[in-house]
Amino acid sequence: MGDSQQTITEDQRRRTELIWNYHLMGHRPRPVDVAIGLGSHDLGVATVSADLYHRGLFPTLVFTGGNSPTTRARFPRGEAVHFREHALELDVPDEAILVEPNATNTGQNITFTRDLLAASGIHPTTVLLVSKPYMERRSYATARKLWPDVEIVCTSEPLALDDYFKSIGDEKLVVDMLVGDLQRVIEYPKQGFAITQDVPEEVHAAYESLIRDGFTSRLIS
Q1: How far apart, in whole angstroms, are the C-alpha atoms of residue 136 and residue 130?
Q2: Is 104 exposed, middle or buried (0-12, 13-18, 19+ CB in 10 A)?
Q3: What is the largest CA-CA distance in the chain?
């Protein structure tokens, strides 16, 4: 399964959708003190963040993220910097945006942003995390572990799985990424990186079967 742009079978798609739906927290965006746009390859994070700002849900928006091997080519100046530029193009005022340009993982996204806000005199009690769709649950679990005194709400671009396949253009890669994030949801609590979350039996079975099918490129060893 090493070919790029590979499509998947209908059974694999069914199993993938179980994992996709599990990753979505189902939170309803509501007014909060601060929103945090988590850096990634997905510029939709910045688009959704800008839309929610214009809906009046928060006064301050933080973009966090440096570079990673998967984003360096697309966002050479860093994820947060490019996300900020996109939000400015969408008419979010510069004074509403803070940039945290150094984080290289989700734990750093949370801790570095918390420190940046504190240094700016901002001490939120409610935070909206904006992420790529399949990262909602992992970002929630990480934030609850590292910032337990803050109420966390999660959201992402409202896409169906098939629409996300089309946006990325490589079905196997999307499945690899969903499987990899679920592995982190399962394993990171054991390492103290996140809170433990229940994984339904059918979701865990789908995860294990997709690993057997070879969707392994985003697994951690």
Answers
A1: 8
A2: middle
A3: 52
